[in-house]
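Hi support team,

I'm opening this ticket because the web form for multi-chain structure prediction keeps timing out on my end. I have pasted the exact lines I submitted so you can reproduce it. The total is 634 residues across two entries, so I didn't expect it to be a heavy job. Is there a limit I'm missing, or should I split the entries? Thanks in advance, R.K.
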Amino acid sequence: QKVSVEVLDHLEHLALVDFRDSEGVERLQKAIQFADQLHEVNTDGVEPMDSVLEDRCLYLREDDVTEGNCAKELLENAREKVEEYFVAPPGNIPLPKLEERETFLQGS
Amino acid sequence: AALKDGLRSQVSAALKEGRVTPTELCQRCLALIRSTKFLNAYITVAEETALKQAEESEERYKRGQPLGILDGIPIAVKDNFNTAGIETTCASNMLKGYISPYNATVVQKLLDQGAVLLGKTNLDEFAMGSGSTDGVFGPVRNPWSYSKQYKEKSVPKSHSEDEESNWVITGGSSGGSAAAVSSFTCFAAIGSDTGGSTRNPAAHCGVVGLKPTYGLISRHGLIPLVNSMDVPGILTRCVDDAAVLLGSLAGHDPKDSTTIQDDFKPFELPNLTDVSKLSVGIPKEYHAPGLSSEILALWSKAADLFKNAGAKVVEVSLPHTHYSIVCYHVLCTAEVASNMARFDGLEYGHRSAMKDSTESMYAATRREGFNDVVRGRILSGNYFLLKRNYEKYFVKAQKVRRLIADDFVKVFRSGVDILLTPTTLSDAAPYTEFIQEDNRTRSAQDDILTQAANMAGLPAINVPTALSERGLPVGLQFIGRSFQEKQLLTVAKWFEKQVQFPVIQLEEVKRHDSGVFQHQKSASFS
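Hello R.K., no limit was hit. The queue was backed up. Here is the completed structure from your submission:
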């Protein structure tokens, strides 16, 4: 069962990472094939496990401010900024559709 | 008496008595790092800050007020831990040039105790891999490739070809840390362990690699791979040293809510002489396909060692072992897909020049910043997390995880104190051979013996055991009960004493040899 181009395109959108070439797509196919082995295991009545520490209570501390006010340090690592803002290109513009963007999947 | 003590106590004693100063120690390590540069174990060497730390330590010793056993001790940290003022790259283009504003908790704890941070060690990109071959700064070379022991056993090819093509991998992903400890450039190193990333290179490099119980050591500042499995790992040259490091790092951290709140008391390891009350389990499923006959024999010999010493040695079963790699594959890629989402170029790290839209900037940044392995895992993870696949893959894997964890619970409940297994399927492969298979296949093969301990959150340790026929290290693994590190390390220490793993004979180290290094070497024998 090969993954359809629609799904591959969808994944590129969700992950904002590209398959790059046929090897990338092959890699995914193999990964799915590998994962399918899971279905050999009988898990009837078994609860999913989120964490090995599930029997313990999470630590909650008092709602007191203990650190912060470090905007200057945090901004130091950003490439583009204006005053205390991180600058991003315009939002609200969806990633171009398959036919219009530069992706290996175009040929498929 | 000195030989009985841990190496750390020896060097610490030497520092206290003024037989060597912290700056001398630091300078010797830095010089050795320079002359072993071909190993590519370090990404960043923090020479200036290290010397400054060493000087401050020296002042404290002069005043007779060292901070503790780690004061003045040179250590190295894997480059996926945040270090303030020192570049943290995760061996990726995504974080090249990234200078963190804070120290990871484990780093802070070490610095607070006066340890000298020599530098950041090399790894597979974002800790994804089992060879330390897939980072942007190139592969790490196993110091044993240059050892007398390995060279003696190598089939002589043409002399010019010899060393350049014959070198073996360190294993991974904490290969740089393992190589650093193995080549004497530091006394201990911090790694990380998600599927075996500390124990695997420890086995291949002939050093002790400890994976603590999940929740014991803070992950704050460790750039996450799989939040539910990651732990900081400890690499040292002997088990006593691992206990010292553990003592200084373990304990609740309010900044990491996944650390347990129980009080942790640092301990010194007793010298176990009587193992008659010990029950050692040998999980039959760890006789995995591909396990070399050499390692199988060694494992058997080790089991006999315990039996002959009076311990109860029993075969046990962990029936879902076979599925742990598949389970890990799904859970890991899913968590990776989520964890890697933070790399968008806006707040830190690489940023693409693309400006058309936010999304296209993110996409271009990630395209430029991540290697194939990372991208592959992100895409696979996203696939398993699609609504149509969520139950089928992700939740299914979580259920299988419980079955794997329960296997261990059942075995430990049946009276077994500790499990003895191989750590790797074979000794270290030559680099040229290793890269013939892709990263995912390799990881799937190599992680098979180490992965389940991460699934179940259990503590596990690699103890260097013997040299293979090729003259390379082979280690064996002990897996213990949750939070029973004292018992685990006590047994590991007993075993270490029995096997007397040989010291690596490296030309470079001999040249830099001094009284202190001589000390180190003899301390490995008892």
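A quick check on our side: Strands of chain A lie at 81-82, 85-86. Let us know if the file doesn't open in your viewer.
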